[in-house]
Amino acid sequence: MIRSMTGFGQGSAEITGFRARVEIRTLNNRFADVKLRLPSELLPREGEIRAKILARVQRGRIEADVRFDGTRVAPTPALNRPLAEAVFAAARQLREEFGARGEVDLGAVLQVPGMLQSAGFGAGLGEEETATVFRALDSALDLLDAERRREGESLREDLRSRVAQMGAYAEEIRRLSAGVPEAVRKKLLDRLKVLAEGVALDPARVAQEAAFLADRADVTEEIVRLTGHLAQVSALLAEPDGEPVGKRLDFLLQEVNRETNTVNSKSAALDVSRAVLALKAESEKVREQVQNLE
Q1: Is 151-290 a CATH 1.10.10 domain?
Q2: Chain-centre distance for alpha carbon 36
């Protein structure tokens, strides 16, 4: 089943005295790009969280926000005694050695960076709290995946109908192009009869030039490759749940566009050019949609 690159999932889990909430949002991007917003207590587990997300989302910009709220007990501030002792020792030294005057202000001391430290959760989470966070993460990823699948299925149905229309245009181009080489050859011979009237021409050379022009106007190989690429696109759209298909579909559509341009440049027939332009227009619409797929 194909997936959209855009989606949103939210999950939460809790135990007595602790609750975790996770929100994950995914957007279109050429590669997998994970942006995490984590409480400081979870920084030691950042690599594990990142790996868990990338196991489920393989392409796109991923923004994940993990929070603790609800019944979680706030960390208790604790005095950094070594730092406090160093500050007061420096104050005594200023008075005794340099004759500085004034009292040490308590508010200024408390504002010294690192003077207050968090106790409790500050050093990290326990195993139960960490397991709760990962349960919330799993729940958010499940909901995200379900939304991306739903949107992907909707895109798949639209793409199938458009690719079928592209196949119909390709078949029309094949039918219209079938008589072009012979028409080119006949046109050359007719012109030579008029322009070279009364002039002796080498029949072998005339036949050679006619064959050359007819071969240049023959788009059989391009049509075969074009229909082959469209068949591969249809096969990817029909694949069961597996690897992401967005990049492969985009590559195939580039090849479809290349073959279509070649057909258009080789054929001077107006009806063929109209069919080619219709095919190109549909191909561009499909390619725009493919940019939304993982």
Answers
A1: no
A2: 18
